[in-house]
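Lay summary

Proteins are chains of building blocks that fold into shapes. Our project writes down both the chain and a compact code for its shape. Here are two examples, one after the other.
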Amino acid sequence: MNLQTAKKLLRPLIYICIAACVASILSTGTAFAMYCTLASFATLAVFLVVYFGYCKCPYCGKRIGRGVLNATHCLHCRRDLVSGKRKKGSGGKHTKH
């Protein structure tokens, strides 16, 4: 699985997990609540596998941390995550000594 597919998969997994948790809370004390709880744990497990297993830069292999859903450049190698081109500039002022 590549990074773009993993990014597209993460957001629905979060929404499914939240919906299952809310359904579990609203139907407390029933068998449906137990199934919703199990579904939320299973969805969370799949989310963690996708996040830690596949949300890595395709060029340097380092994990893209927080903000992976909106990331356009790798913070480590500064390459564009789609095209692979390096980002120009360093983002700050440099003074010569």
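And here is the second example, written the same way.
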Amino acid sequence: MDLGKARPKRHAISRAQMFLALADKCSIQERDICEAFIEAAIVFGRTAIHRLQSRFKGHPNWKPWFESLLAEPSVMFFRRQRDHILKDGPPKIGQIIG
């Protein structure tokens, strides 16, 4: 997975990418671990946004940029899903009802 710029292995985006890659390798019999990897990717994706806020919130142009970022569908997804995972339970990902 290349998003253009190489990031350190411990960067939140690097961790999210790692968990997505691990989820992608899971077989259908490993769906529980696949879901756990997807949940971890979502949590780390949201962590990246938190870390940006901690690092740059003192910048004079931070607030308008951050507010525009919060309107992005992908950021809204990470915020909603991460909150659901931490507060309510696992996300409903491709579940089969039998």
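What can we say about the second shape? The helical segments are 12-24, 31-56, 62-70, 73-87.
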